[in-house]
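Illustration: Cell adhesion molecule 3.
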Amino acid sequence: YWQEQDLELGTLAPLDEPISSTVWSSPDMLASQDSQPWTSDETVVAGGTVVLKCQVKDHEDSSLQWSNPAQQTLYFGEKRALRDNRIQLVSSTPHELSISISNVALADEGEYTCSIFTMPVRTAKSLVTVLGIPQKPIITGYKSSLREKDIMTLNCHSSGSKPAAQLTWRKGDQELHGEPTRIQEDSNGKTFTVSSSVTLQVTREDDGADIVCSVNHESLKGADRSTSQHIEVLYTPTAMIRPDPPHPREGQKLSLHCEGRGNPVPQKYLWMKEGSDPPLKTTQESALIFPFLNKSDSGIYGCTAISNMGSYTAYFTLNVNDPSPVPSSSSTYHAIIGGIVAFIVFLLLILLIFLGHYLIRHKGTYLTHEAKGSDDAPDADTAIINAEGGQSGGDDKKEYFI
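Result:
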């Protein structure tokens, strides 16, 4: 472009003279833009496959070419130039050249060049980034069973990540705050080893828990890659006494079960009663049995659960209630039958009362109609008077009761 301005060698264009816009929109400029190939940067996980795609609008009767970071030609058009079976032709047209590289290694990372041999030669760059997959993390620092309230430090490390991965800790669903991830470059100069540690004071609730170290990295695409450490915590036993039946009565059989828990599990149980000396029973069995309860059995009982880690005593107050008769099945049956019979008798009495009222009303109506139909019968008024003991109607006195 400077030559088109007829500038002499060693001279500069004046600052106040704008370059003609016709230079930037000249046909040669537009043609060169159409002949410029383009491509894109790619990221691939080690061991995967990457596709390199190069396109051009105006090929000017020239073929496209792909070269690796060492400037070795891979493909010129559809012709293979480098004997590497991992590199295969995907598409070859006058406007496009696409190749694939399978089983990508860390050494394949770098800038790949797409060229078109026009005048002048034009090129486009594609940066291939290879991600190193972190190895499964390894946890160290746990040696043997811990005692309650001991301090424990666990270490975790993972190598082979590129870029460097991050480590996290958790216990069950609870996140643990470990030390920040430490990063160290591997001997190959490309990948990294990351490490972290976590320190916690264990409790009896931690017995049987899993401490998990997870590695987070973009090459995993959300997949979980973690290692867990199962821990065991030794702690003193606890115990509680459970009666069977819950509300014992005199004459019944009673079992007092001493339920001991701990790590290790209690191996021995010692039973005692306040005011009684010596102890009632020392056994590996956890139950104290009363075959036939008496009032004298009432009192406060204690059960001591014993293990290698110590002992614990639980107490229970036994109150023996008076015996209560238990209704038999036959008496229950008789009570049901008696209730049914009483209900039937009650219905019959109601029926008889209604029937009596009905008969009395209909009998009086019948006598009234009979008196009206007889020749000897007085009229209704006379009948009423006679019924009340007033006048008589002849020698034979007739009385009508209405």
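Reading the tokens back as a structure: The chain has a mean pLDDT of 82.
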